Amino acid sequence: MMKKVLIAGAAGAMGQKAVALVNSLTDVELTAVLAPHATADQRAQLQLGPQVKLYQDRAQIDPKVADIWLDFTVPAAVYENVRFALDHGMAPVVGTTGLTDEQEAQLVAESKEKHLGGVIAPNFGMSAVLLMKFAREAAKYFPDVEIIEMHHADKKDAPSGTALSTAKLIDQVRPKHESSPDEVTTLDHVRGGDYHGIKVHSVRLPGYVAHEQVLFGGTGEALTLRQDSFDRQSFMSGVKVALEKVLDLDELVIGLENIL
Amino acid sequence: MMKKVLIAGAAGAMGQKAVALVNSLTDVELTAVLAPHATADQRAQLQLGPQVKLYQDRAQIDPKVADIWLDFTVPAAVYENVRFALDHGMAPVVGTTGLTDEQEAQLVAESKEKHLGGVIAPNFGMSAVLLMKFAREAAKYFPDVEIIEMHHADKKDAPSGTALSTAKLIDQVRPKHESSPDEVTTLDHVRGGDYHGIKVHSVRLPGYVAHEQVLFGGTGEALTLRQDSFDRQSFMSGVKVALEKVLDLDELVIGLENIL
Amino acid sequence: MMKKVLIAGAAGAMGQKAVALVNSLTDVELTAVLAPHATADQRAQLQLGPQVKLYQDRAQIDPKVADIWLDFTVPAAVYENVRFALDHGMAPVVGTTGLTDEQEAQLVAESKEKHLGGVIAPNFGMSAVLLMKFAREAAKYFPDVEIIEMHHADKKDAPSGTALSTAKLIDQVRPKHESSPDEVTTLDHVRGGDYHGIKVHSVRLPGYVAHEQVLFGGTGEALTLRQDSFDRQSFMSGVKVALEKVLDLDELVIGLENIL
Amino acid sequence: MMKKVLIAGAAGAMGQKAVALVNSLTDVELTAVLAPHATADQRAQLQLGPQVKLYQDRAQIDPKVADIWLDFTVPAAVYENVRFALDHGMAPVVGTTGLTDEQEAQLVAESKEKHLGGVIAPNFGMSAVLLMKFAREAAKYFPDVEIIEMHHADKKDAPSGTALSTAKLIDQVRPKHESSPDEVTTLDHVRGGDYHGIKVHSVRLPGYVAHEQVLFGGTGEALTLRQDSFDRQSFMSGVKVALEKVLDLDELVIGLENIL
User: Of A217, A220, C221, D45, which one has the fewest beta carbons inside 10 Å?
Assistant: First the structure.
């Protein structure tokens, strides 16, 4: 049976990639989009087939129109969107950022009550998702670990969200670990940031795009995980995986790596 | 309860590292060694406590002496050793190479009959083991993959056993995959070896020790797994994991990555 | 004194980048372009100021119009273009490919006669140019070397031109070197291509763009040079260097690395 | 003509490697050693041929005994040793650390007066030496640069001497450079150490030995230099180069990279 998908934010940059993705899949069907500023004469430009319903207002959406609510909207809209999806029996797949920890907790609680699956992922790029998954697994065997992330010079914040998420995942599982208290630095801060004893280093250089390395060391050996994102197009590989799996879940899951 | 361990090949280079490892663990106890050429006056030199039984001949071994048979012997001895262990209710953990595919199949069959656990691992280095495990998992999402292994210039054979094992693991899981039939090479063999469509490249240079990279590429992104072995001491991290888990298994497992 | 530049092929993709580059520099002035298919009403679109002469036909060019002939045209035109430049006292800077070894030799000979400088570079990306320069220098101290180049899956030929150029440069300088004649491969071709004993490995994966590594090994140490090209825009950094230096040369030089 | 070499500190770990090196070369001859605690019956053990003079006291040394003074002694002795060499017409090649900037300046001044060559190198590993040389050269074209050095977990100080030397060399040549003043960090110190705007990151992990990377970024491209030292044996490649070149110099040079 074909899974029916509604895309919220279908006119945005990521939304348009999502439309193209769903149009290209054989077991998923685009049945509706929510695009507040789109008009009927933009249908072709937005790659919407004649059978796709175009909504400008969330309130008008017929809940039967889709099984999955795929959200690439904006921080201001995402919480209400996901609540709407859960309230109306649609499984949310959310690539929009901006949910607070409290909002996420509320949405997860509601999804459990309704036994409704869903996925919220800050990063749908499969290379980043697998890197985080593998890092968490390797840290059980290699508690000594540091993270280096490298981004283009225009990125103004550091560390990257993915690097911080990776540090948090590792922190949850790695055995108790003593860092070196008697280290001496002759250049301040050269040992980088410190997240619960996990050192994090941020590199910013022109030419680079978005890259992350996790370095593990043990007696006589080392393990390195690296991912490179060259293009936001890479997000769609993870969206595809989420669309395949979301209807088999019975609660909202945070992090694509948790359903692989 | 303390697990009792017999080490076969305790006087060899790897066996000696194994003795040191078991001596350092708190939930495992070294109760016996098999060391055909060792004499009683070498006990101290071999790091054997007074309570450890020293056997020079397999036939003399009392099967009750140990729960686990840890084997670092030689290709000519390993098959009969593992059969002996299984026949006498000891769970084999085998780091010795040289078993044929047929011998492995027979031993697995026997272990199943007796519901006896065991592990045979060509490589106990956790960085290599995790690399293989992760590579197999990533290949489900990234069917485009190539392997580069790099070793010291004195290694005369190529590719390395680990690289070939990695290719086999990937081949078992990756989606059907078309390679580029219309590729043109202006320098023969520049595209490397080909294992069922997976390209394998072997580098041999002085200074290098033993390293392997698995490179995955997808639309707009890349994932790279890398492991470096600088020292055979690294094997012991995997032996420790095997000793922890082997008594919970109920059959002989090939590849440490399959019990993580 | 301002250097005057004519750009041949100013309407092409690389030519347009070159126009933007020259317009942005303070010691170089764009005085003319050769663009056979461009018309006067395209001047603004081609970023040509009112003082820039627009030629559609090489024969009409006034030799006094420029000191430097910057060529981003097509293989069929480049030889005659460079001869024209040399014949008329303009120093050629050539990014167009397609010259044969014989043609290059003739042009160099003519430039020497006329004491006229010039640069022909197959690759103007400074990361690639420096990689080649450094590789040639390192090979004097590290004769053991292998090359790995990695490109997107759509590249149909292997190895890349830069990799082959690097191998040639290394071959010219490295001390006599014995490769391992008694190597055994259990997977055919796994040791890669062989250029005079220098192994070359080509990787082709989606997601990758254009990357090259040169690996040197010596007793107890290794040196690795790597360059990544993410965008053809990178070529312009080398064009800038060539424009700065070409008028100080007194012959045509092949390879930007030879004038750094 | 054979160059005659005296090795000071010939009984130490590095000194012994130096003795083996000189014994293996065809154009250099070991004529004397200074080894305060060595006795005549240790000659064989120290690999000293019958013709090699063994001095226990610097004052006894006959200045005619050697052309080159190769010093692998201790910080407390090195300054007086190099002065002695210069005073007596021997060209010093110094691998001992511990000279202050003032002492180095004095020794250089004296060498210039006497037109006597010499080399003082904190690091004789050719991979590190070439890395520093190439980094300085690349920085002219790529002013955006960061350094990552990685060492074993037992190294208590950070950054490494080589990383700091690299930063200093780059700082001397790179064009004026503005760093990002409006950067926001959500994890303190994550951007690493800062040497005149050059970011330096130190990684400390078990398994690692001694490694350094210099990362350059430019529009659409990146250049990475990496060196790995696995073994102190690697120092001897640079000592060989210094022995070859030192008699052609007419002053004391700091840094092997300055005579390549």
Answer: D45
> Band of the pLDDT at C181, cuts 50, 70, 90?
low
Asked if C162 has any chain A CB less than 8 Å from its own CB, the reply is no
pLDDT of C177 higher than 80: no
Q: Is C209 on the interface with A (CB under 8 A)?
A: yes
Q: Do B234 and D207 touch (CB under 8 A)?
A: yes
Is any Cβ of chain B less than 8 angstroms from the Cβ of D209? yes
**Using one digit for the tens of pLDDT, what is the confidence trace for B114-125?**
999 999 998 899
Which residues, in sequence order, are CB contacts of D210 under 8 Å at separation 6+?
D150, D151, D152, D160, D228, D229
Supply D87's token pair: 């005073």
Q: Is the pLDDT of residue C3 over 90?
A: yes
The interface pTM score, or ipTM, of the predicted complex is 0.90
Does the beta-carbon distance from C230 to A230 stay under 8 Å? yes
Rounded CA-CA distance B239/D249 in Å is 56
- Mutation for testing the A interface, residue in B14, B127, B259 having most A CBs under 10 Å: B127
Which chain A residues are within 8 Å of B214, Cβ to Cβ?
none
Chain B, 72 to 131: residues with Cβ < 8 Å from chain A are 125-128, 130-131
Quick one: average pLDDT of A85-102?
94
Active-site positions of A? 151, 155
Chains that touch D (3 or more CB pairs under 8 A): A, B, C
| Residue A59 predicted with pLDDT over 90 | yes
> Are residues C195 and C133 both part of a single domain?
yes
Query: Nearest residue of C to residue D214 by CA position?
Result: C225
The catalytically annotated residue of B88, B155, B168, B245 is B155
- Domain-terminating residue out of C116, C148, C173: C116
pLDDT averaged per 10 residues in sequence order, chain D, 260 residues? 95 94 95 94 93 96 96 95 97 93 96 96 92 97 97 92 94 81 88 96 96 97 96 89 96 94
Check whether the bond before A159 is cis (ω within 30° of 0): yes
B233 touches chain A (CB under 8 A): yes
Tell me, yes or no, whether D90 and D134 share the same domain. no
User: Active-site residue among C53, C155, C199, C245?
Assistant: C155
Of the CA atoms within 13 Å of residue A5, those in its CB half-sphere come to 34
Same domain, yes or no, for C41 and C110? yes
The residue assigned the tokens 């699956």 is: A117
Quick: pLDDT tens for C201-252: 999 999 999 999 999 999 999 999 999 999 878 889 999 999 999 999 999 9
Strand pairing category for A198-204 and A145-151: parallel
Q: Is residue B56 part of a domain?
A: yes
Q: Do the annotations mark residue C192 as ligand-binding?
A: no
Whole-angstrom Cα Rg for chain B: 20
Q: Number of folded domains in chain B?
A: 2
Based on the domain organization, do D112 and D15 belong to the same domain?
Answer: yes
Question: What range does the domain containing A204 cover?
Answer: 126-231
pLDDT at position B11 over 80: yes
Contact assessment for residue D5 and residue D27, using Cβ atoms and an 8 Å cutoff = no
Dump pLDDT digits (tens) for D1-22.
799 999 999 999 999 999 999 9
Does pLDDT of B182 surpass 80?
no
